[in-house]
Amino acid sequence: MHSLFFKAFGIICSMSYHVCPRDCFDTCGMLYENGKLKGDKSHPFTSGLVCGKASLSLRQVNDVNRVVKPMVRTAHGFEKITLDLALNIAAEQMNRSKGKVYRIDYSGHMGILSRFFHQRLFRQLGAPEVTWDICSTAGDNELLDGFGSIYGSDIDEIRESDFLIIWGANIAYSSIHAFTWARQVKNVFVIDPVQTDTAAAFNHVPVRPGGDVALVLQLLMEMKKRGYEVPLDMSKFTNLEDISGVSQEVVNLLCDGLLKSANPFVFLGYGFQRQWNGGLCVRLIVSLLDVIGKRDHFYFDRPYYGIDVDYVRLGSQKPNNRSISWTKLSEELRGEHGAVFFVLNANPLNTIPDRRTLIKAFKSEDNFVIVHDLFMTETAQAADLVFPAKHYLEFEDVIPSYGHKYLGFNEIAFSAPENSMSNMELSRALSEKLGLKNKELYENDIQLIDGALRPLNVSYDYLKEKKRIALPEPPKVGHPNWPSDSRVLSNLNREKEGSFLLLTPVARLRLHSQYDNEINAVPILEINVDDAAQLRICDGELARIENERGSLDIACKVTSRVPRGVLRLEHGFWTDIDAPNVNDLIDSTLQKGNMGSQLMWNFVDIRPVGKGA
Length: 613
Ligand code: SF4
Prior knowledge:
Rossmann fold; 3 domains; 24 helices; globular; 31% helix; Dimethylsulfoxide Reductase, domain 2
């Protein structure tokens, strides 16, 4: 079946250059050649290595279930319509909504054009800005407040390191290059409540969930004992070992490594950062590095420094006054009437906390939902109008990385299905249908790329020829502004708010919900062996997890890799829109003081269901 689609969509040339635009640290350089998408061996960071998601990208292009015609919802289900009619319907609904248009987008494609250009149109229509606060906002805001910058070093500094701490990240899944380099480092410790594949490969420090702040304070206390200056009143912080679950012996080992190695490095992940005290913990870890004179020896995030993103995003506009939180989207849109929800670059009805509330808002007869996507995702299933999207192998874009310094040029490998559009093409076509006169809404992709690269004295033609350039180094973290003793104390310990903590990390072959339709993996809930015995749950059996927001029946894997009191379920698996999904159970509360999400701090009950229950 797939080969039919190759014929239909046509290969543009025998070899083309690509950059993986997925929301991933590594942003791999790739070549399409002889029917294969493979790593670019000359890329200084990714060196020819790509993960399994690269070949899944090719499957996406050729997938028989791809949306290739615009569709409108009728009383009898979706009906295929012409592109012109679809654009007319969209424009009519956007006009009818009298300014109640919501741009609902995130990071499905990380290209500078795909992610930012359409914002010009939605801003002109009065749509609120979207605060992309579900990923690294907690840590970013704390680092900005504490150090004036979020940037320490790039991930590839691991190659120079002789002592590495991987804190709250499963890089075996989320950064395969970091994982490969970590294997060359003499001493590696992984701080994580769960024995992930990364933790299993190195020295595992099983911190208690939410105990990371206590662990940093244990390290700071030990540093103080060894004569380093720590500007916190450490006598205020007690029971640290009980809270973190990490012994003094291990604390000594970590301190020895940090102090005795020539080049210690810390990879700060997003896992613990998404707990109730995670943002402050990121700030304290970097403060700890400052105490030992290694302030920039960490990776957390790299800003898109040197590129004029605002040129693409804003043109000459100013941001709108109102913004909505992505994490709290369900709450923000609850009870909305007469609105147009325009979704692109995202699948919120899979990935948003408290998604049941958002489903209700989307299904309300009063609101009109427009979705631009490759597939009939959960969100597309709730749409009134669906536009087919181009795949990243079918249009040009420039892709920066938040893990390394290389900005790459993505070429076209295939001609796209006739009616499909990139985000930029859709935005321009809608502007025209809406009769908007602002010339900035019609800039073409080459002009946009030239504008974004102008501060670098680089043009579209130059980048297209060279395929990638190294961006300048962003300003690094400066002198620390320590949080107060009382703020640290209020972030130290918190009672469990339910029987089991539910952790919902990323999967190896999914990027949030992307690619799940290509792998059809069965979602599995991991439960500790002693908890399972106590609850009479056997390996492979179904259990029900539930809280006040929802419930989900799911097959269990009994394992000693998760600690007692913790359940682990990788998020992003696809369901029918009305079927339960793990994000039905996830709360949208934001962390205090930094407005980042705390998705990894949710509690559920669990019980066996089915046979013998
Ligand atoms: S998902 Fe990440 S590791 Fe995999 S190909 Fe894309 S950028 Fe590379």
